[in-house]
Amino acid sequence: MASRDLDAEFVRSESLFIRLMEKHRTGRKKFLLHRLTVIGRLSCGAADRRTVGGLSERLRFLIKGFRVSLQSRPRPEKFSFKITSGVCCVLDHYERLILSLQRIRAGEDVTGLLLLYPQHVLLVIECSTEALLSVLQDLRHMEENSGPILEPRILLVSHDLPSRLFQLWSYKLLDETDSQRTLVSDEQSLERLVRDTLHQILRLGRHLLNKTQQITGSKVIPDGVLKEASDAVPPQAAVSRLLQMEALLSPARYISTYHSPLHHRLDSGNTPYA
C-alpha cells in the first residue's frame, strides 16, 4: 500500500476513534450544564457592595437542603434569615455560596460572572441542575426577606449547554463611567433591549474566555481586560429598564412554574360528584 494510502487510512481511523471517544464522553457526562442570568437592584450603596454580612445560617440551610431529596427539602419560608440594616454582602455571599456548593458536589464546578453596578447587579452562573435549583431558592429567599439583591428577575435560563462560556468565577465592581459607556435609548423596545443585553453578555463571555490566562489566579477582572471589551458590558441603564418588564419571572414564580410537580396528589377519599 502506498504511503499516501496509509496516511489516508490513518486519518480515517483517527477520526473514527475521536468520534467514538466523543460519544463515549457524552454518554459518561456526569451532569447537565445550565446557565442562569439574573438582574436585580442592590439594597446598599456603592461603597458597601462587598461588605461581609451574617450568612452562616443561610449557608447551613443550603448545605442541608442540598443533601436531601426534593420531597423532603425544608421550605425556605420556615427559616429565619436577617441581614443587618444597611449592610450589603452580594460579593461575599456568592463567593461563600459557590464554595459551599462545590464542596458538596465535587467535580461539579460553579462558574460565572458577577457585575456589581453602583445601584444594580447582573449575575451569570453556569452550574449543574442541583446547584441551579439551590441558587434559585437562595434568590427567592433574598427577595422574600429583603436580602442584598432586591427584586431579582430571571433574564434567561439556558439548559443542557455543550460547553462552558465562563471557565472561572469572576467579578467586577463597576463605577458610573464603566456602566454608562453604552448608551440606552428610552425609545428602544424592551424586547430589543433584552436581545441586545444577552448579546452583550455572550460577547463579554467570549472575550473573557480568550483572556483566561490573564484572569487565572484572580477572581477580579483586570481593568485592562474589561477596557478592551467596554462595549460588551451591559450599561446600568439597561439593567434598570429591564427590571420594569412584567414578563420577567421572579425566582419564586420560576421555581413554581418549572421546578414543581406537574400533578397534584389526588384525595384518597371518595369525592361525591354532583
From TrEMBL:
Mention any Pfam family matching this sequence: TEX47
The source's superkingdom equals: Eukaryota
In terms of InterPro entries, this protein maps to: TEX47-like
Q: What protein is this chain from?
A: Uncharacterized protein
Per the UniProt record, the source organism is: Cyprinus carpio (Common carp)
